[in-house]
Amino acid sequence: MKSRTRIPTTPLLMILPSFLLAMSIIGYPILDLAWTSMQEVSRFGKMMGFVGLANFAEVFRDPLFYSSLVRTVIWTVAVVGGTLIISLPIAIMLNDDFYGRGLARVIVMLPWAISLTMTAVLWRWSLNGRAGLINATLMDFHIISEPIEWLATAPLAFTVEILVGILVSIPFTTTIFLGGLSSLPQDSYEAAVVDGAKPWDLFRYITLPLMKPFINIAIVLNVIYVFNSLPIIWVMTEGGPANGTDILVTYLYKLAFRFGQLGKASAISLIMFSVLFVFTIAYVLMVMRQEHDNTAEEVKHDA
Amino acid sequence: MAWAGSPAYAKTQVNFTVAEYSSKTGPYFEEVAAAFEKENPDIHINIQVVPWDTLLQRLTTDIAGGQAPDISIIGTRWLVDFASQGIAEPVDSYLTPEFKSTFIDTFMAPSVIDGKTMGLPVAASARAMLVNTDLLDKAGAKAPANWDEFYTTAEKLKAVPDTFAFGLQGKEIETDAYFYYSLWTHGGDILKGDGTSGLDTPEALQAVTLYKKMIDEGLTQPSPTNYTREDVFNLFKQGKVGMVFTFPMLIPQIKAEAPNLKYKVLPFPEGKAKATYGVTDTLMLFSSSQVKKEAWKFIEFAYKDEWRTKFDHGEGFLPVTKNVAAEKYYSSDPDIAGFAAGLPYAKFAPTIANWEEIADTTVRALQQIYLGQAKPDEALKAAAADINKIRSK
């Protein structure tokens, strides 16, 4: 009992240097951001004096902040959800042994190597109303009779941007899932097949539960990544028309680099950091408790 | 590591940040600097060429980091921000009456803030209307001189298949400028005499209602909110649009990419007033500079007629100095003359603080109107109120 409550000092001392280094690298920018968000900042980055929470008050009075926040949530949930739903079957297919599997895997990964900005530029061209490849193709196949102006209205433009967002997130997510699938124990499947399980049962009762840790990692990483992702929306519509596709990060970019309101931009940036921080902690706690419950259950069964 | 390459004897170093207009800009300024250094062996000019897209960000970082250059080319619309933060040096004490008189007054005016000259005009352009004369002939229409004719011409052009009558921009940079052309010629202005927004005036409503009506009647390309300036110009180059409003830099593009296109440069349609949009860039001296005297010596050198002629012809700009403007080229070349014709009545974006935010508010209102999300008068009134708030009026 005694040995359990005693705090082991030696290991703690040993990780102290790297802990301090990590804290200064991670902590300094955040502290600096917090400091900036409570200052009046000139458009050339000069601190003009402490203003307390005035920047935050201004952000919370701004209707564009709330509409961007709502859209950020839709954007994140839709892109991450869509990515997971598509990536898992792709990973399962690529995990099967078939002729040309290596090539197929490379093809799925390749888009990952292209910069997001370039992908967005290509889509912007493809979606051009008069000269775009998409409309030309759809019209050749007589699917549509008139060109569609994909990016002219906010609802359609935002939908298209979500689809592009899903498309570019698939390679990374598929990679995580492939890694997970290759580590699954094959004997469970063999045993289940012997017991007469159908493919859907295999997926539902073996693959999905065993893949849970990988799905959780994919969710956390994708949420952080997508929530903060600027290039797709910025390149395709700059948050327009009429601010109808603005998410927090595009709005923040406009505030900082177009309007020169660095204080207000820092405040939004800090709010975004807090949202992600709370989400990540809450999610990790939830997942850990679940795993703890599962282990407890298993222990009970054994007894 | 400034000392690493320093010569044996101390030359005075002048750092000059140049905005890149085209691939010719950098070599041109290197040439000017070399000629200047020949006459002034004790001064060295360091030229830094920065693309327009990143210029403001670059200067912001340089200034924040205490590494500001001695002189820089900037967009005149940013000058108020530079001046109000004490970053720009007033140049009145350097500006001899003789040197001052070389400039065309219209272009000097935007650089004067609170009675002080905060910089010199370095480049200028004005806007005008381009019409596709082939399409006009096909439609049996004539080039319009006023807004009523513009509308009837557009109606005739609509009958020509696979083309659009009027290319209207509704997306991204200068969407507001495309509206100001109409606003000014209808007799309105961006700001009223008392400094409040001019968007809630009858003239502004008239200007935007005309555009909206043309969108609804199919006299523009469909869904202008999907078309940037470049998209609209591309349609014109492809011969698919009868009339566009544009800048002089489109002319070399047409000559290179669509040499067979038949076009004419005309003034904007008139309403209650004649107007064009004049745009200038400013050469600014930094107040933090330690070598202002040397920097100014270089500036005076760079404004000699031979250099200005070379610069303006090379980049396709309109002249900012009287001697260059008097050249025959600016009245004999029909394209250049078409743009230069508007200079006497050119209007400029007001030099006011927070201009980018005001422009953004205007663009939002315009897009809501073009999309039919808001009624023109309501959207304009709301935008005017927002702008007044931004300006604390």
UniProtKB/TrEMBL annotation, chain B:
Is Transport set as a keyword in this record? yes
Q: Does the keyword tRNA-binding apply?
A: no
InterPro entries the record matches: SBP (IPR006059)
Q: Which domain of life is it from?
A: Bacteria
Write out the entry's keywords from A to Z. Answer: Periplasm, Signal, Transport
- Give the family, as the similarity comment puts it: Belongs to the bacterial solute-binding protein 1 family.
Q: What is this protein called?
A: Sugar ABC transporter substrate-binding protein
Q: What is the lineage of its organism?
A: Bacteria, Pseudomonadati, Pseudomonadota, Alphaproteobacteria, Hyphomicrobiales
